Each structure stands twice: as structure tokens, then as C-alpha cells.
Amino acid sequence: MYKLVCLAILTTAFVVVAAVNYDRTEIHGYHFHTYFFQKDDDSTQEAREFRQEIQRQIEDGLLANCRLNRFNMDPVGPHPVGSFETCCNKTSLSQSLSWFMQNRGNLTIFLHPLTTEEILDHTVRSSFLGSPFKLKISALETTLAAVDLCLPLTTSNDV
User: Tens of pLDDT along 7-37?
Assistant: First the structure.
């Protein structure tokens, strides 16, 4: 009887392990959204200075595989407060994440991967450095036709 119970447990464990369906969606890059309170002068100033430092780090090569996008003084898309985005390609996650963790100050960073599954990227695949914010998920598409590859911009997105 003992052998039969052990066999049943092992068979069940094998079936459970074999049934796991891991996500194989390709991640093309990452967005680091820096959040600030656009109606608060101190918060806005901290965000502007942080953005300038990110630009310096890009130019100096520490964040070489990243680019800055526009500075939003109002909520845009799913983002509930002022924000700006730093887009980093998939090879630079470790360096970029380390830098943002150490240098974000009082700002919150919303981090998510870039795949064709926008809602999943902004919910179950995302994380916050700092205080979390509730996103407006209804502003997102379930599936995207194209993914941001975090290539350099041909025009300026200065503050």
C-alpha cells in the first residue's frame, strides 16, 4: 500500500510539473516611467533634475542603451500623474534597474517590460520602485501590432 501511495504522489507531481505553461513572450525592452506630482513645484523640480541626470548618464555611457521620451506635465495614457519615460533595450535591464534603484530619490518609478501584450505588461509583469500608483488600465490595448524597441530618437524630447 505504501508503494502505491508513493507512486500516486509522484505521478501527480509529474503531471502538475508537466502541465505548467511558462510564458515565452519575447521582451524587447523596458520602460521606466518616472512619476511626479505635477502641481507640486518641489516634486516637479526633482523630476526635472532627475531627468537631466538620466540624460547625462545616457551621454556618459552608463545608460547607453536607453533614451528619454517627453516630459508630461499632465496624466497621459494609463499614468495618473505627471511623468516621463526612459526606454531601455533588453540588454540594459540590470544596469538601468540598479541605477534607478539607487538614484530615484523621492520619485516613484513604474517599470514594465515591452511585449505585444500591453495590459499584461502594465499589470502582472510590472513593478514599482517607491509608492505604487493605480493605473488607468482602460487606456491600454490588449495586443499591440508593434513594440517599442527603444531605438534612439531622431528628434529632441527636451524638457
Answer: 455 454 444 445 567 778 899 999 999 999 9
Euclidean distance between CA atoms 97 and 78, whole angstroms:
22
Nearest CA to 144 among 18, 28, 12, 4?
28
C-alpha cell at 148: 517599442
Q: How far apart are the C-alpha atoms of 111 and 114, rounded to whole Å? A: 10
What are the distances in angstroms from CA 117 to CA 25, 29, 107, 134, 148?
9, 13, 27, 19, 12
pTM above 0.70, yes or no: yes
Q: Which residue ranges form the domains of the chain, and what is each CATH number?
A: 29-139 (3.30.70.1240)
